[in-house]
Amino acid sequence: MITDRRFIVGIIVFGSLWGFAECIIGSMLRDVNLPAGAIMTGIFAIGLMTLSRTTFRQPGMQAGIGLVAGTLRLLNPFGGCFICSAIAIMAEGLLFDLIWTGFSLDLKKTPSRTIQASLGITSAYLVYVGGYIITQFLTPLFSSAGFYLENLIVFIPHILASGLLAALLGVATVPAVFTFKELHITVQERLYYPVTISISLFCWIFVIVNTMRIIGV
């Protein structure tokens, strides 16, 4: 049985890692004009959420992870629309949670590689496209821009097409996570809290310090 404290710490560490990747690696990808959103979703978001889900097998966890990661992204207001990015991250965490819970994907035994690849391509595509669409509805609420449904409808084909890269990355990411799980690498109970808390603190402090450095504080 997973204790509430262990569960909460797990949410924080996975969310911190995702948020750190979005702030640091995502910014680097945007700087070189690569499709950061699809790459971050297909590799980091799907990878970390799959790892957390197969480790804890607890519905609701990925929504919490997305909330933590999105909050950390808000502390790094660089690289395009950071509010859009934060909303997308939170939405992706919730969508992943709903997909895996709704389709009963908390598998008790390791699925075949074919099923793993199917989980990857389906989850990555739906999470990315769904998160993208949700940002188009919610971002205007936090900015001065107005929402116009006709603009979203015209933009839908682009959104659906942009999800293909995330799906192609997801088809490799999910099997990679399951392969990693087969190594049975675990953290000893007495080290669990010191390690996870240290990783979380590092992610938050690094992002905050980096942000202060950029703005010249």
Characteristics of this structure?
217 residues, mainly alpha, globular
Structure report:
- This protein has 217 residues and is mostly helical.
- The chain is built from seven helices and no strands.
- α4 (82-102) packs across α5 (113-138).
Task: Describe what is shown at a glance.
This protein has helices spanning 4-31, 36-56, 61-74, 82-102, 113-138, 149-181, 189-215. The protein is mostly helical.
Helix content: over 70%
User: How large is the count of helical segments?
Assistant: 7
Strand content: under 5%
Radius of gyration: 17 Å
* Count of extended strands: 0
- Tell me, briefly, the overall form: globular
Q: Which residues sit in consecutive blocks of at least 5 with pLDDT less than 50?
A: none
Structural class: mainly alpha
Could you tell me the mean pLDDT?
Answer: 90
The major β-sheet equals: none
